[in-house]
Amino acid sequence: MLTVDDKKSRGHSRSPSDTQAFRERTKRDAENELAAELQKLENTAPPHLRQEFHDEFAGFTKLFQRFLQDSGPSVVWEQIQKLPEDAIRDYDSLKEPTNEEIRDMLNKLVVVKLNGGLGTSMGCHGPKSSIVVRNDLTFLDLTVQQIEHLNKAYGASVPLVLMNSFNTDADTQRIIRKYKGFDVIIKTFNQSCHPRINKESLLPVARNCDVNEELEAWYPPGHGDFYESLQRCGLLDEFIKDGRQYCFISNIDNLGATVDHKILKLLLNPTTEPHEFVMEVTDKTRADVKGGTLIQYDNKLRLLEIAQVPKEHVDEFKSVKKFKFFNTNNLWVKFSAIERILKEKTLDLEIIVNPKVSDTGIHVIQLETAVGAAMKSFERSIGIHVSRSRFLPVKKTSDLMLVKSNLYVLRNGSLLMSPQRMFPGTPLIKLGDNHFAKVEEFLRRFSTIPDLCELDHLTVSGDVTFGRDVSLRGTVIIIANHGDRIDLPSGTILENKIVSGNLRILDH
Fold first, then answer.
1. pLDDT tens digits, one per residue of 353-404
2. Do 420 and 438 touch, CB atoms closer than 8 A?
3. Per-residue pLDDT band at 443 (split at 50, 70, 90)
4. Which of 244, 256, 276, 468 is surrounded by the fewest CB atoms within 10 Å?
5. Is 222 assigned a ligand-binding role in the annotation?
6. Phi and psi (nearest 5°) for 111?
7. Residue 9 burial class via C-beta count within 10 angstroms: exposed 0-12, middle 13-18, buried 19 and up
């Protein structure tokens, strides 16, 4: 006869708490192991750098502890609230300031560019800001031109601040020497340098603190590191003492992120209590479905990123109808509010777990944070609905094609939509990764960038080259299948055409 040991049966029912106890124990073990490994790493640092690494590791340890505590999406989908009517202001409702107001306001502003990224995804070496965009000018050249024009036009003194990473700092310091004759004060500071951790062991892959020797073992922990790094380097105190009230933060590769006087007036000459944090948002298109959006949650306005969305709601998150706007990462933040939040230790940023595979094949994770995620930590945060012209990032060569084309005219370092473009919005361009992903190869395939003023959509796939003065209009699809090659002759005009097969015109 089968008998059941009742004690064992009852004991088995406690398995959930056993599992919880196991998890807690493994978390403690992971924290203890990490602390021991970080101490070993710190001991390899030169004596004059040891305190610096100690501080870096303290920040990393906080991130790591929060990573261990996170048990899934940080948002309960059903608890997302409807956005209040005044949560997002329309840009057109903002008032234009006078020239006198502008001069006064500019002297209370600091422009910050996030300059920690490399151009490796587009096959370039060094800081992304050193990629040539237009007229032999780089992202950084154009940014300096913009600020200098502001200062000269209004008799102001807006400083430019670059947040570099250990990857970009040395090259950037060499580059900015050429701007000494410009009417722009340039200051730099570095974001943190954190150790990558092995996905399996949750321990650092670095063996010593010589970052240059083991570049692959270290990473900058995302632009959410801005707030604490700005304070740590002393610039936050310096700007507050200097009477600066707000900073305008944007990515160095967003050519649409210029200082806007109407937004500045809203912040510095408010009709109600001043906003501590403003996020520029723009209309979401099908190309932006993964971009962060604004939601009301726990009665606070906050940024919702795709990584925080439960898997079963990802399609809903990507909906252009339900979530109409997305974050441009153009942010306006009050310095005194940053100081208060850091003092009160109320800065709350979600952890972004970024998995990578190193060149040696090791699966590692990077723990990062985003600068816009701080929105919920500030008082009276709002979004401002701006036009698409404020969002011109260059992430791929397809973006580079747009900003190099006649769609835009260059004026005082700023790109403005050409008056020849008869309708708003930019064309959707898709260039094949195999032949166009790297800047060098992309440039080799164009004798000149085609006329895009009347283009809606362009798809190019395969071995395709463009002659001089090509014009593309409407929807154009060019596909060279494997083994085929298409050379578009100079002067070609393609309007609502599909081109496939082989096309070569040879000189004779």
1. 899 998 888 999 999 999 999 999 999 999 999 998 999 999 999 999 999 9
2. no
3. very high
4. 468
5. yes
6. -100, 125
7. exposed
253 annotated among ligand-binding-site residues: yes
Reduce the DSSP state of residue 481 to 3 states and report it.
coil
Active-site option among 27, 199, 262, 395? 395
Tokens of 421: 């473009």
Among 74-78, 108-112, 152-156, 373-377, where is mean pLDDT lowest?
Answer: 74-78
If DSSP codes are grouped into helix, strand and coil, which group holds residue 89? strand
Quick one: which H or E segment has residue 238? Answer: helix 235-241
State percent of the chain over pLDDT 70. 93
Q: Is 433 annotated to bind ligand?
A: no
Q: In the numeric block, which tokens belong to residue 119? A: 């151009």
Residue 467 marked in a binding site: no
pLDDT of residue 24: 65
What sign for the dihedral angle of Cα 435, 439, 442, 443? negative
Strands 160-164 and 186-190: parallel
Any known ligand binding at 194? no
Rounded to two decimals, what is the model's pTM? 0.90
Look up tokens 């998150």; give the residue: 317
CA distances from 205 to 31, 49, 217, 218 (A): 16, 20, 6, 9
Instruction: Cite the beta strand spans of 79-127 per DSSP E.
Output: 88-90, 109-115
Burial (Cβ within 10 Å: 0-12, 13-18, ≥19) of residue 28: exposed
Please state the φ and ψ torsions of residue 74, each to the nearest 5 degrees.
Answer: -85, 0
Query: Concatenated DSSP letters for 286-340?
Result: GGGTTS-EEEEETTEEEEE-GGGS-GGGHHHHH-TTTS-EEEEEEEEEEHHHHHH
Indicate the SS3 state at residue 338: helix
Reply yes or no on whether 8 is catalytic. Answer: no
Q: Which two tokens stand for residue 62?
A: 């906080």
Task: Check: CB of residue 27 under 8 Å from CB of residue 68.
Answer: yes
Q: Specify whether the CB–CB gap between 162 and 188 falls below 8 A.
A: yes
Q: Which amino acid is at 374?
A: A
